[in-house]
Amino acid sequence: MADQKYAWLPANLQPDDANPDWMNKADNAWQLIAATLVGLQSVPGLVILYGSIVKKKWAVNSAFMALYAFAAVLVCWVGWGYHLSFGNSFLPFLGKIDDALDQHDLLKPAFLGKFPSATMVFFQFVFAAITLILIAGALLGRMNFIAWMLFVPLWLTFSYTVGAYSIWCPTGWLSTMGLIDYSGGYVIHLSSGVAGFTAAYWVGPRATRDRERFPPNNILLMLAGAGILWMGWTGFNGGDPYVASIDASLAVLNTHICAATSLLSWLLLDILFFEKPSVIGATQGMITGLVCITPAAGVVHGWAAIIMGVMSGCIPWFTMMVLHKKIWLLKQVDDTMAVFHTHAVAGSLGGILTGFFANPKLCRLFYLVPNWEHYIGLAYGIHNGNAKAGFKQMGIQLLGIVFIVKLNVVVTSLICLLIRLVVPLRMSEEELLGGDDAVHGEEAYALWGDGEKFEKSVLNSVYGAEDPKNRNEGV
């Protein structure tokens, strides 16, 4: 009877042993903490950042796009997304859906054997979720919310899983070639930047008045969201060795060095060319630094992280402030949060610099492989008399960029065209004019006379708000 009672347990897990021998408690604890930090980057980090950096009339809609994506991705991820991204090989760029995610699967060791698969599923989910939320940044202020509800599961299924399997799964084709993407410079940032830009092309621009003037409704709250995003990157890059290792410590320190250097570089450029220290500009510089170091975080030395920070503060600044005004295609697409520059440009830059600065000894700590022909940056290849391996690594890094760009342009376009057959991609003119109240029947701030407008909302009857006639008069 006892054997039947516990028949659902994996063979190597005893009913009285919640901590099996194969599990490392420290690694499991750190992985769960890292996953939670990454989750906080989205909820509440980007929810707050999006809701405060946009015009007041779009605060609710922008924050809600992020919140919805977080929830929708989780349901799709445990249903099929995780296995497509990390399951047994089905194609060189895609896994196959095996058993359902039940106790048999979730309580077994993850592929590194230091913590349960349940931890791995959760950790990888928060990365998938933030990718969709970053795409939303390019679409704020005009995408039909129903269309966004359809876009999230479709893009996760047909684009994100392909990139994740190809680059991160040990049997993925770019992974076996030796592409270095420590924590998502390709899978997350380049993907979201290209997909966001492509989707913004198909959805169309914001209303003319919004494009001409789009002031943040609360810069202090924007900084609070940005701060959560920055600190959450400790888990973003520190969790990817999948062990509480010395490499994780190095990745965390490099992450913050690069972000700080990039912020200061962007700030100095703003002062030199615009004569004003912009807090919004500094926030953009912080983000580009975090994005740039992501593919390299644990495989470069601190001095390289500083150089990457200077470049990530200058090159995306140049593309955003100078090239954006000169290149026809960039001028045609309304990318609300400049996701193309902060994520696609910075992510590509990070991938290329990783191919140049990657230290082979640090790569061995991360990838746990003895093969010196793989994972050697060009700078070290030339220094060690093995320039051929260094150039090969650079070629693989560039190939990864080409693959991710093509994948996301094609798949995102097809998804947008498919959705357009069902519902409009873009809000109606009435909704574009009315903003949150027209789309959701809610507003972000009920201050002074604005509160009267909220009291008339149709949602009052749904959620049982009291009759305004019964309220006491006053402020």
UniProtKB/TrEMBL annotation:
What InterPro entries does the database record attribute to this sequence?
Ammonium/urea_transptr, Ammonium_transpt, Ammonium_transpt_CS, NH4_transpt_AmtB-like_dom, RhesusRHD
Superkingdom to which the source organism belongs: Eukaryota
What compartments host this protein?
A: Cell membrane
The UniProt keywords, alphabetically, are: Ammonia transport, Membrane, Transmembrane, Transmembrane helix, Transport
A Pfam cross-reference name: Ammonium_transp
Q: Which residues cross the membrane?
A: 29-51, 63-82, 121-140, 147-166, 186-204, 216-233, 253-274, 286-318, 338-358, 398-423
- Topology within the bilayer: Multi-pass membrane protein
Q: Which GO terms describe its cellular component?
A: plasma membrane
What GO molecular function terms would the record report? ammonium channel activity
Q: Where is the Ammonium transporter AmtB-like domain?
A: 29-445
PROSITE patterns in the record: AMMONIUM_TRANSP
Indicate the family of this protein. Answer: Belongs to the ammonia transporter channel (TC 1.A.11.2) family.
Protein name, as recorded: Ammonium transporter
Annotated organism of origin: Olea europaea subsp. europaea
Task: Tell me the lineage of the source organism.
Answer: Eukaryota, Viridiplantae, Streptophyta, Embryophyta, Tracheophyta
